[in-house]
Design a protein that fits this description.
- Keywords: Metal-binding, Zinc, Zinc-finger.
- There is one protein chain.
- The protein is mainly alpha-helical and 390 residues long.
- It has a domain of 66 residues.
- Helices cover 44% and strands 6% of the residues.
- It contains 16 helices and 7 strands.
- The strands form 3 sheets. Strands 6-5-7 form a 3-stranded mixed beta sheet. Strands 1-2 form a two-stranded antiparallel ribbon. A two-stranded antiparallel ribbon has the order 3-4.
- A hairpin with a 5-residue loop joins strand 1 and strand 2.
- Helix 7 runs antiparallel to helix 8 and helix 9 packs antiparallel against helix 10.
- The longest helix is centred in the middle third of the chain and has 21 residues.
Length: 390
């Protein structure tokens, strides 16, 4: 096998420091001569084993690194080592199987090079890169067409988060007018994402069946889907690596307050475990689910802009979502207090049990604004959808 610089693997009779060439004279006798390999002045007297490695072996190592990277820096540090690694690390085989955490780019670090890197990964067929870049283009850079196309590309490859995000776009008519809503398409996308194991999609589908939203009403079946979503959430938590720590026994009891750490001196950074009664149907108290890297990027992007995506526009009140409105009154707001709004029923259900249940209270100003004809009466006159708390 030949290597990148054109030499072959050394045979058994070749030492590491010198390369031995065998040749025969005209009489046919063996004449062994030693010829020292020419090395650059910087590595004179040393063997450069990295140059001897074949490209296929280096690409295989980089492939394993990209698929198990825990953060973007794990892979980015490889690109700046040398020209050879920089060229081999951007091969389609390496980029196509990069882990989702490798695309956890901070909003403050967004640049043209980061955009180009995600684009290269998406062109290589990486569905996570397609979804992440699609969300950024659609919501942050307001390039609706390209963003939706990339999310559709990931959805075709059965990427559950992309299917659910497209369902939310169909439910709200995002990027268009209110008449662009397609409830039946949203339900179909939710059903496909739920079949692939997406918990939020299953919860959204359960609410749609309960309310008859885009599908024929079936309260019993909708309730069954909601219970299945809670059961899947519990199974996901218990099967994760976090289930092996000391906090597991506290998850079997309901507590709306943070759980104190059993040994605060040992882990001074984690004095309390944030509790979240998402599984109150089962009497369990589990940590809040970790948001997707694209959702974190959206939250950071608009948080740096004061939490206002545009004039008269609002963000989804669920802290783990980050989706903004693309037009006024796109999201539905709480029918009780009117202080919060959500892009979907799934976000509403999560935020209700996580935070809003303890804060929601009727607001009397709604009645005053309805009588005065102010802008706050959108839900009364039907200009803004309302969402009832459960």
């Amino acid at each position: 096998m030949r290597t990148r610089i054109g030499i072959s693997y050394p045979r058994a009779h070749v030492c590491l420091d010198d390369i031995v060439f065998e040749r025969r004279d005209f009489a046919g006798d063996n004449m062994a001569c030693r010829k020292r390999r020419r090395l650059s002045p910087g590595i004179a007297g040393k063997r450069d084993f990295f140059d001897v490695l074949p490209d296929d072996l280096v690409i295989s190592i980089l492939y394993k690194l990209s698929s198990t990277a825990a953060c973007p820096s794990d892979f980015a540090n490889v690109l700046i080592v040398c020209k050879r690694l920089n060229s081999l690390a951007v091969r389609p085989l390496v980029l196509s199987k990069a882990s989702p955490k490798m695309f956890a780019i901070k909003a403050k670090s967004w640049s043209e090079s980061a955009h180009r890197f995600l684009k290269n990964c998406a062109d290589a067929g990486n569905v996570e890169a397609c979804y992440t870049l699609g969300m950024i283009l659609f919501y942050c850079l307001e390039n609706r067409g390209s963003g939706a196309s990339l999310m559709a590309k990931a959805a075709i490859s059965s990427h559950a988060p992309a299917l659910y995000s497209l369902a939310v776009i169909q439910f709200n008519g995002s990027g268009g007018s209110k008449n662009d809503k397609d409830l039946r398409a949203g339900v179909a996308l939710c059903a496909r994402a739920a079949f692939l194991g997406h918990i939020d999609a299953l919860r959204e589908l359960g609410h749609c069946l309960q309310d008859g939203y885009g599908v024929r009403q079936n309260v019993a079946k909708g309730r069954r889907f909601l219970v299945q979503a809670n059961a899947r959430e519990l199974a996901t938590v218990l099967s994760s690596a976090a289930a092996s720590n000391n906090f597991t026994r506290y998850w079997l009891t309901w507590s709306p307050h943070p759980i104190p750490h059993p040994n605060p001196r040992r882990n001074h950074r984690h004095q309390a475990v944030p509790g979240c009664p998402l599984l109150s149907d089962f009497g369990c108290n589990v940590p809040a689910p970790e948001a997707h890297p694209s959702s974190k990027f959206l939250a950071e992007w608009f948080g740096a802009r004061g939490g206002v995506p545009g004039p008269g526009l609002r963000l989804c009140s669920h802290v783990g979502c980050g989706r903004p409105e693309t037009r006024k009154h796109e999201f539905r707001r709480c029918s009780v207090c009117g202080a919060v709004n959500y892009c979907s029923r799934a976000c509403q259900a999560l935020d209700w049990k996580l935070r809003h249940k303890a804060e929601c209270a009727p607001v009397e100003r709604w009645l005053d604004e309805a009588g005065d004809g102010g802008e706050g009466n959108g839900a009364v006159h039907g200009n803004d959808d309302v969402i009832a708390e459960s």
